[in-house]
Amino acid sequence: MIEVQIAGAGAGKTHGLAKKIVAHYDSTSYRKIFAITYTNNAKQNISQAIINQLGYLPDNIVVCTVHTFLLNEIIYPYSPFVLNEVHTTSSQCKTFSNFPPSKSAEKKQREAKSTISRLKKIGVIHVDETYAAAWRVVDENYSKHNSQKKKSKVRKVHRLISSAIDKIFLDEAQDLDKTALKAFQTIGEISADIYMVGDPKQAIDYPKDFKGWLATNKANEKVKVLPNIKTSRRVPQRILDLSNTFCPKGQDQVSLSEVEGRLTYITTENDHYDAVLSNYIENGSLVSILRKEGNYSTKQAGLLPEFDPEVEELLTVKFPEYEDGVVTYSLQRFFASLLSKNDNNGSIRKFLAKLEIPYDKELFKQLCRSAEQYSASKDNSAKYRVSSIHRTKGLEAKVCVLILTPAIFKCLMQDSVTKFNKTWNIVYVALTRAESELIVAVDMDLLGDKYNHDDIVRSLESIGFEALKN
Ligand SMILES: Nc1ncnc2c1ncn2[C@@H]1O[C@H](COP(=O)(O)OP(=O)(O)OP(=O)(O)O)[C@@H](O)[C@H]1O
Predict the structure, then answer these.
(1) How far apart are CA 289 and CA 442, in angstroms?
(2) Closest to 351 in 3D by CA, of 303, 324, 315
(3) Has 7 been labeled as part of a binding site?
(4) DSSP letters along 35-66, please?
(5) 13 annotated among ligand-binding-site residues
(6) Which of 148, 289, 349, 457 has its CB surrounded by the most CB atoms within 10 Å?
(7) Nearest Cα to 404, choosing from 334, 463, 363?
(8) Which letter does DSSP use for residue 397 in this model?
(9) pTM over 0.95
(10) CA 240 – ligand 1 centroid, Å
(11) Lowest mean pLDDT across 66-75, 376-385, 388-397, 429-438
């Protein structure tokens, strides 16, 4: 059985999910309850909410990300049995390199495919394959389960899942793609009950998939959609008045917050722009932008280049006296320091020379991918380090700052844009993070010559924003 709770931003979905888990929890049961979500941020929120309500996190309540759940509970244990595919670990290494710059899209695609199948041969599943692999394990309709013997293996897997898992609580279900939804549906219908919460309006990665899945299952007795919650505990009414214009008909939210709320803007014509923005960034407000652009970078500090598993193996055998993890970490740091001083090719050459590893074309390609992935995640030239809107999903702060870019401005003004697509949903997410004030930061350098300062200010004021007072 699958129960689906749909609700808008700040309705209390995550909080309610934790409450349901606590109510369902039975300290005498050996079976596990899984609280599954999409990001590590959300994982922490759920764990904290359970701890707040129960006082501790019991051993048989497992809070994990979707990928961890599918890998540890479905793919690693059962894929050898039903698919004859053994995976012992996963990798999120980059699957293709952009080097040389003239490389065609098809060639990159071929390289990605070959990386994934090479990894598979050594028992490593690439994270991009997780949903499909999980679905193949649990669905007897998969074309290769084409005999009664194979189908009965799948049924056996469901019996095992059923004996190990009590119930699955799934947060942010709108972030799953079609394949993952199919996999969870199969599990929910056959082996373990699922309670899922989601908001199709916040579907940023696959804007159509969750909505499509709900529509397909309208008449399915095993998928029960609960009445939509139309209140928001977080977002003040003043801000909802704007975010509601991004909701489908009949899904407007009403605020339960006692805060009146403010919509403000600040532009680079204001001498205090830099000080105001820097202050909000430093004091932990949610400051976000669509993607890194101009003076604004979006990556986390402290990332290291990720090696392919084969490269990792090659490097760790060179230092048998140390633990593998220590060797990998040290060499990642060494490679990162080379990359910060040299171009990618020079860094790879120096890296191999220092380790006395002879040049090999395939190894060079693999290190190129690691270097590119790392370089893309670093941007020291940007003045402001902010978050992507993507990463603010599920988060909240008293004051939130949204950096205006042309695409966001166009969508915010609903100026001949497609409704309910990715950008539309992104704007809805950005509008609904603040508990008290949403500030739009207008950087005229970022917007470019096509935009006129006074026109932008007039437009923002027409939808309820007022100038931020110094
Ligand atoms: N029953 C409740 N009692 C008190 N506070 C609540 C309750 N439910 C939710 N809240 C608070 O309201 C805010 C929004 O809740 P929550 O994050 O669960 O909403 P959400 O629907 O998951 O939001 P989003 O769609 O943005 O992910 C949080 O600060 C949460 O602590």
Answers:
(1) 11
(2) 315
(3) yes
(4) EEESSHHHHHHHHHHHHHHHSS--TTEEEEEH
(5) yes
(6) 289
(7) 463
(8) E
(9) no
(10) 15
(11) 376-385
Q: From ligand 1's centre to the CA of 167, what distance in Å?
A: 22
> What whole-number distance in Å separates Cα of residue 453 and Cα of residue 438?
19
Query: Measuring from each residue's beta carbon to the nearest atom of ligand 1, which residues come in under 6 Å?
Result: 7, 9-15, 199, 202, 233-234, 394, 396
pLDDT of 302 reads 56
Paired tokens of 61: 């309540």
Closest residue to atom 8 of ligand 1, CA basis? 12
Tell me the CA–centroid distance for residue 172 and ligand 1, in Å: 13
Which residue is associated with the tokens 């090479």? 118
Q: Which atom of ligand 1 is closest in space to residue 394's alpha carbon?
A: 27
CA-only gyration radius of the chain, Å? 24
Residues sharing a CB contact under 8 Å with residue 330, sequence separation 6 or more, in sequence order? none
Strand 32-37: give its sheet, edge to edge. Answer: 61-65, 32-37, 165-170, 193-198, 2-6, 223-225
- Residue 320: band (very low, low, confident or very high) from pLDDT cuts 50, 70, 90: confident
Contact present, 94 and 370 (Cβ < 8 Å): yes
Q: Whose CA is nearest to atom 13 of ligand 1?
A: 234
Cis peptide before 309 (omega within 30 of 0): no
Q: What is the mean pLDDT of the chain?
A: 91
> Can you read off the two tokens belonging to residue 70?
């599918």
